Amino acid sequence: MKITALKTHAVHVNHRGDWTFLAVHTDEGITGYGEVNPGGARSGSVDFLQQVEPVLAGRDPGAIERILADLLPSHVDRPKVMALSALDQALWDIKGKVLGVPVADLIGGRCRDEIPLYANINRATTDRTPAGFARNAAAAVADGFDAVKLAPFDGMPAGIDRASDAREGISCMEAVRAAIGPDVSLLIDCHSHFTARGGCEVFDALRDLSLYWYEEPVPDEDHDGYLAIKDHIDVPLAGGESLMYREGFWPVLDQGMMDVIMPDVTIVGGLWELKKVAAMAEGRGIPTAPHGPFGPLTIAAGVQAMAAHPGFQILEYAWGEVPWRHELIEPPERIEGGRIQISDRPGLGVSLNMDTIETYRADRDR
To answer: How wide is the angle at C-alpha 145 spanned by C-alphas 144 and 150, nearest 5°?
Structure first.
């Protein structure tokens, strides 16, 4: 079998941008699919995939490690790593389809039959008031989710040093907790808006809300800030969504900066690299909860990787952005009670529905 072509397909989602999917075609009619991180799609990942298409033409798609090693950038180039992350997903999809088994069976076998999800309502919430967040949180719970996340400090400046300067975001969290009740898990993403002192003060203001975790209160490079906040709070400290490859997670694990790591399959280097990073963390007793509030192929890849990982905790799901999300793949995405069943179908278990792609194709791809 040989690779014949790489094609990208983007659909317009909303004010937050597009979802971009990669299709790797072969001479035997088997196509593998992956998803490009939205930031990478805007900043050069698609261009890089177009550039390497002639290099990959004629290559055996089953030689995944060798292909990715040959294309590895000489220095950390985020758009290229995001492109390779999508390529990795697609190549594993092909391998599973060729062998007639789910990817999870190829990377260790299943540890579970279903994957718990949390509903990230942040991207779907255009009314960024306490009432707007509360309304969407309640709707996600009505859809069956028993865990909800938001990022209420978006739009605020970086480097917030006092809780008094984050009062609006704190009010959003309080409104959401009141709307969903005490039994639904409540997650917060701070998107690195705080200093160490600010992160500690804001947590103190939220302490009575019984948070599931406290995510990315300070920038990735503020190692001392992470350690100070971790020592101060009484819930798990989570982060790492922007880190690339195993090397990106070495300081996190070596210094014990986080209680939960959140590698993103569209950023970390792909499905296989996600599995490797998760195994590193497992060796330190740290669970993995992959980031990825994007399209259905991100979920499909995360499901396969975490189905085969004993130390998995929970997977992110982009709730409520478009009503036709489930129609983008075949078979359609089916989630019940905030859980997604692990598919028995080969590869990632899904394929793109090109009719839906054509209906919602982004203008730049028409």
So the answer is: 145
Provide the 3-class DSSP secondary structure of residue 248: helix
> Residue 364's pLDDT is what?
53
What is the Cα–Cα distance from 245 to 176, expressed in whole angstroms? 35
Collapsed DSSP state (helix, strand, coil) of residue 73: coil
- Would strands 147-150 and 185-189 be described as parallel, antiparallel, or unpaired? parallel
The two most distant CA atoms of the chain are separated, in Å, by: 61
Centre a 10 Å sphere on the Cβ of residue 101 and count the other Cβ atoms it contains.
Answer: 16
Yes or no: say if 291 and 238 are a contact pair by the CB < 8 Å rule: no
Pairing of strands 329-330, 351-352: antiparallel
Residues of the chain with pLDDT under 50: 365-366
Residue 330 tokens, joined = 């075949």
Contact (CB, 8 A) for 88 and 64: yes
User: If we measure between CA atoms, which residue out of 171, 214, 209 comes closest to residue 194?
Assistant: 214
Residue pLDDT, tens place only, 36-49: 999 988 889 999 99
Helix (H) or strand (E) segment spanning residue 223: helix 223-232
User: Tokens 């400090």 correspond to what residue?
Assistant: 153
In angstroms, the CA 133 to CA 137 distance is 6
Neighbour-count burial of 54, counting CB atoms closer than 10 A to its CB (0-12 exposed, 13-18 middle, 19+ buried): exposed
Terminal CA-CA length for the chain: 30
